[in-house]
Amino acid sequence: MMRFTVLLLLPVLFVFSGCEKDDICSDTTPTTPRLVIEFYDVSNLTQTKNVSNLVLKANGVSETLSFNGVSKIYVPFDTTLDTAQFELIQNGGDNDTTNDNIDIITMNYTRTTQYVSRACGYKLNFVLNPTNGFSFTDATPNDGLWIQTMGIYQSTITNENEVHVKLYF
Fold first, then answer.
1. Backbone angles phi, psi at 141, to 5 degrees
2. pTM for this one?
3. 86 burial class (0-12, 13-18, 19+ CB within 10 angstroms)?
4. Which of 25, 50, 145, 161 could pair covalently with 120 via S-S, beta carbons 3.0-4.6 A apart?
5. Beta bridge partners of residue 57, listed in sequence order
């Protein structure tokens, strides 16, 4: 009887000895963060301000991101470059292209890798350059800048829970 039990248990042990823990990266695991930009009223520097009909177009990318009625936007960086240039088009979300006002923002940053886990691999974090982290220019000088000023609020970009750049208009 003892031999019979051992013979039955032996295959069961072989089956369970080959099992491994599942390596699944949870949806809640932090991944490469996006740049968080918050908009403020230039006449009241502590008051957030919603943007309407805003379109963001990254340099070299055909897709655009549209925003309406928000004071905070999330912008992905190119993970292969140390510079991102994008157009913020005021009134770009409406059908009238004659009232579009395009300001060009250039962000300079360095990339660092961070190990997350075996299942998730690595993520990239970004650090905005302290001496020339950003610049902004007007795509069409005769219409004037709609962004009056901007500033880096948090230069280390490791998550999307905090504002990194403030734009005043």
1. -55, -25
2. 0.82
3. buried
4. 25
5. 64, 87
Taking the C-alpha atoms of residue 137 and residue 140, their distance in angstroms, rounded to an integer, is: 9
φ and ψ of 127, to 5 deg:
-130, 120
The 3-state secondary structure of 94-162, one letter per residue: CCCHHHCEEEEEEEEEEEEEEEEECCCEEEEEEEECCCCCEEEEECCHHHCCCCCEEEECCCEECCCCC
> How is residue 155 written in tokens?
């230069």
* 4 vs 89: CA distance, rounded Å: 78
Residue listed under structure tokens 């005043």: 168
What H or E segment, with its residue span, contains residue 11? helix 2-17
As given in the structure block, the two tokens for residue 167 are: 């734009």
Place of tokens 């009909």: 53
| Alpha-carbon span 105 to 138, nearest angstrom | 9
- Cα–Cα dist 65/89, whole Å: 10
Q: What is the pLDDT of residues 10-63, one digit of tens each?
A: 555 555 555 555 678 888 888 899 999 999 999 999 999 999 999 999 988 889
